[in-house]
Amino acid sequence: MTSSPSDTETHDGGAQETEAPEHPLQGFADRVAEAVGGSPEIQFDTVKVRIPAEGWVAAHQTARDDLDLVFFSWLSAIDWSNQVEAGDPLSEEVEERIELMTALSNVTDGDLVVMSTDLSHESPTIPSLVDVYAGADWHEREAYEMFGIQFAGHPNLIHLYLPDAFVGNPLRKSYPLLSREVKPWPGAVDVEAMPGRNGSDEPSTENPEA
Amino acid sequence: MTLDADTIRHMSETSVSIELETEDMTLNIGPQHPSTHGVLRLVARVDGERCFDVRPVIGYMHRGYEKLSEVRTYPQITTIVNRIDWVSGYANEVPFIVAAEKLMELEVPERAQYIRLILTEMARISSHLVFNASYPLELGAATPLFFALRERERVLDLLESVTGGRFHPNFNRIGGVKPAYASGSQTRKLAQDLPAGFLQETRDAMDKVLTAVDELEDLVAGNEIILARTKGVGVLPPEVAVAYGVSGPNLRASGVAFDLRKTEDYLPYDRFDFDVITGENGDCWDRWHVRLQEIRESVKIIQQAVDSIPSGDLQAKVPKVIKVPKGQTYVRAENPKGEMGYYLVSDGGNGPYRLKIRSASFSNISILPWILEGILVPDIIAVMGSLDFVLGDVDR
Questions:
Q1: Which domains does chain A have, with CATH numbers?
Q2: Parallel, antiparallel, or unpaired: how do β-strands B41-47 and B25-29 relate?
Q3: A46·B70 Cβ contact <8 A
Q4: What is the pLDDT of residues B115-145, one digit of tens each?
Q5: Contact between A62 and A83 (Cβ < 8 Å)
Q6: Which residues of B touch A99 (CB under 8 A)?
Q7: ipTM over 0.90
Q8: For strand B338-346 and strand B354-358, is the pairing parallel, antiparallel, or unpaired?
Q9: Is residue B395 part of a domain?
Q10: Of A123, A176, B66, B386, which is the most buried if we count CB atoms within 10 A?
């Protein structure tokens, strides 16, 4: 997401004042960002810290050891792409990239941070987190098959869900939803009119018995 | 009787290396196996009765929900997400709906929030009762199954009376819950609320569930065979559990008092008095016992909620066509199996640009290679059963 700090402020607390009150998570966000060397943003009560790809493993090491973020919740990615084969295209053009994210939390008061970094769209490569968080193993295998991200140093980077011979990265936006190529989704149009539609609470005339 | 894991490993190494010349063999367990709760395959290297290097093979049920969500509208996605963990389908809907509501900055009426909370706790009770039915059965005790399933039926009947569905309620709407229709009529909103007598029926049912939980505890906790098969078996230390992202009752059984109902605000849990149940040793026994006791806590929450449920609307005002403004958020909830969360990325359209589904069982069974290392083949069943996973929640 291309949001700058200025447009995230308006979401805080939904307050109408021009000067938005500081978000209760702002202190936590700043503390994490400073320790791992990233920039914080808060969107809808979710703390995200953007860090450069070079500092990916070191940042997670710091988060685990110094910030007590010991709980590895998940790792996944977003394909920011202008060429969208399945679903709606983005409303405005973006810089094409793969955004890799992990969610880390502590197990005391539930503070959670989403670590995020940008990888190249053509050949995304990043060192593996398996040595820092053992749970990253399966999540990285999933991101590898779904987005084509190479995790250097991963002990067993093979397909997780998909058959071994599967070609392609299904969660890439350029990957079409194949069943819909063959047959358009029948639910796109209502086959018959539902009673009481168009906002009226009146029973429809098609079914006077009801 | 209760050998710890290290002693067992040591004994095995001694006997294997000194007394016997054995050869490893590869044992393929599953994908069709009653104890796998779906289709999970394990490839294990077996040396005598001990297994090493266990590799789970998953994906037999991968339905591509994350991709599918990108071509669906928000109201359509609730039908998808309640099929993730079908044993507690209702609970899966809530964090997704809350994530969408967060981006839309909607204020959900209190009554709707209470209904969500009551039904979520009912889903938890029913999920834990399924566990309490199947786990002793996997260990050879058939009787608890009938006690637990009888009570689960009570709870599912209540869920059905409100939502119309037992497994896939599809009851949440962005901004509230689905208005109930008078039975038999698709068109007239005669009863725009909980069914008549629901609150009293819930109170009665909860009393019966409490009695049954005591019976279940008597039945299982006094069973020497079950004690022998679960105490000290499959010990999961807290620091390993958190590194793998193991959550929910599995994490609490290892002594970590972490419950998202206490830390997150997706439902008004802070108004109710309940305890976070933890175990001491993190073995199979603790995982069973934590879930049994959590039923009592859920009953406590439901009893308080039905007594204090406010009156009012069931739906906030929402536009006819739901469009969610641009933004990203992560909402997670304490589901019966553990942390269930949705990272929702919206571009302002009527469907998400990206929906990352964090399901509890996926992380919970990623612990299998670690926890099954060096244990006896029959204990595989005891350990896997105690983790209480559902393959739909693993594969998504």
A1: 5-188 (3.30.460.80)
A2: antiparallel
A3: no
A4: 999 999 999 999 999 999 888 888 888 888 8
A5: no
A6: none
A7: no
A8: antiparallel
A9: no
A10: B386
